[in-house]
Known about the structure:
mainly alpha
Amino acid sequence: TGAISSLQRQLEIQESQLRRTKSEKEMLQKKLREQENQLQAMSTKFCSLREEQEHAEMMVTIEKENCSLRQVVTEQESKLAEQNKLISELQGTVSQLQAEVLTSRHLIHEQQRAQEAIQSQAKTLEHRELQARVALECITSRFERYRSKIIQATFSTAGSKAPQAEVTDEELLEAMQKIINERMEFHQMLKQKGVR
């Protein structure tokens, strides 16, 4: 946004300079037309003179004025050419600044779209994380209930001692394995005695 503001300020300055240069160009053209009209008026005046002496004197005066006017016209045309060149350069600068402003706006729009997409993905991930946490809590709760039932079933068998502290998974597994081994031994003994 700062870059766009800076570019727009530069654009306004260049456009102001362009308007000022065009105004100067119009003023120079107006002066040029006035001087051409003066030259035309002098020529008309020269044609209206009939007396030879006045004609000769007027001819010299007109020639001097014509030389002066030609010099002024040449200078004005040179200035006008410089103004036209400056106008062209300013128009090029204005076009470049306008293109940079459009590019900056496009980049900002793309960044906003990317940010919106990232925010949408973040919301989706947050929702999924919440769902995963709820599912994890549910599974953990079920697992703890199931583990509690296993502990209860394991240590409630005949000959088992109730645990005095919290049972680790390894201790629970050893207790279950012990019960399974004892039942297998008991089953083998019954088979050997022929009891079904």
